[in-house]
Amino acid sequence: MLKVVKFGGSSLASGENFAKVKNIINADKSRAVVVVSAPGKRFSGDTKVTDLLYILHAHIKYNAPFDDVFEKVAERYKEIAASCSLKQDIDSELNTIKANLNKKTSVDYIVSRGEYLNAKLMAEYLGFTFVDSADWLIFDYNGKVNFDNSYENLAAIVAKNKKIVVPGFYGSMPDGSVKTFSRGGSDITGAIAAAAIDADMYENWTDVSGIMAVDPRIVANPRPIEKVTFAELRELSYMGAEVLHEETVFPVRSKNIPLYIKNTNDMTAPGTLVMESFDETEAEKKSHFITGISGKKHYSIITIAKNRMNEELGYIRKTLEVFEKLGISIEHIPSSIDSFSIIVASADIEPHLHELITRINEKVAPDSIKIANDISLIAIVGRKLASNIGISGKIFTALGNNDINIRVIEQGADELNIIVGVDDKDYSKTIKVLYNLSEVEE
Ligand code: ASP
């Protein structure tokens, strides 16, 4: 058994957190490859080291004195080193970094130092070997990860060093320069590491007990999702659930490696297990037919009507081409015989509205174009929706009983989710009603 374990910034913010991490690693000998983020916030109002490093870069870029910001970063590491009684010469590491700072230093190099230094400290603390991610995680010139090379590199390293700590968030370009992922990218590093060594599990340790069935800002103390498939997770995150960096899933899914989201502050909490599929008993199939609910506000519905539209071949395609040419991505296209609607994020059409309407008129000459704004889309996601009959009925009855006007209904043929469109003003209420429904139906 071999596990890759990634710890997020809030799990590594202080010496006290480092101790919790060590406990977790020591509790299971198969936790052999450890991926770390930079130190996060220790308390509300604190600043993440990565944010400090972006600020540091801005100071250098605009010729502002940067000693104070650098010192703030340095203090974070010194504090951890002191509280964990580490022996390494952290001052010389910091001096080397400081000596490298000038107007030409890339932002990627600067911000990557957050993970680099934390991995150095964690490696000593655990007694594991430090492996710089610039030495194995390789990007191509187009900025995409070179998976084959990266997998080969890490597999060779792990064959020699059984227990390692690697910094998350960055790798290197073919010319050796440092390149980072977008924010939150240490999740991806962990997934790539797991895929590289064909790990049996990728554990992602964070500060919550897994993914919640619904946004806790809308429903207090919601149920954590114990099991979710990769496909469900994709639906939930696409529709707004903030879980992992969205590129995390691909490397582990392609190698069928289970992903386990766990809480550093509550080791024994069940967390959330993500897999391709689950063997479930009949009783399990009946409980929690909704895996989770997520949603986003601020969509627009553009409804295009033309008498006898159904007789005009290619009418919808021609209309969609207008959106495509303007670079507007489309979410859904509910249709009827002589009209159809196009649902898009309002922010995407706002800059092009005039142009869009003019071009649609020119291209397909509809009888009318109507636009409704302030629409929320809410996704009810569940692999069990397909095997439980009557769920849509229950959903629509519950919404109707609560005076919620459903503006749009969509269900994919794979029955993995049902999307309802409601007015933005009904957003939270709709999510609450749907969540309560899924809890009552146990
Ligand atoms: N430290 C980086 C960030 O704050 C990357 C990460 O934590 O995943 O975005």
Ions, cofactors, ligands: which are bound? aspartic acid
In CATH, the homologous superfamily of the largest domain goes by the name Acetylglutamate kinase-like
First-residue to last-residue Cα separation: 35 Å
Radius of gyration: 25 Å
Number of helices: 15
Mean pLDDT: 95
Give keywords:
single chain; 442 residues; alpha/beta; Carbamate kinase; VC0802-like; eight-stranded mixed sheet; five-stranded antiparallel sheet; binds aspartic acid
Question: Which helices and strands appear, and what pairs or packs with what?
Answer:
Blueprint: E1 3-7, H1 15-26, E2 31-36, H2 49-61, H3 67-83, H4 90-99, H5 107-126, E3 129-130, H6 147-160, E4 164-167, E5 170-172, E6 178-180, H7 186-196, E7 201-206, E8 227-229, H8 230-238, H9 249-254, E9 259-263, E10 272-275, H10 282-286, E11 292-305, H11 315-325, E12 339-345, H12 346-349, H13 353-364, E13 368-381, H14 391-401, E14 406-411, E15 417-423, H15 427-440
Helix pairs in contact: 2-3, 2-5, 3-4, 3-5, 6-7, 11-13, 14-15
Bound molecules: aspartic acid.
Aspartic acid binds next to helix 7.
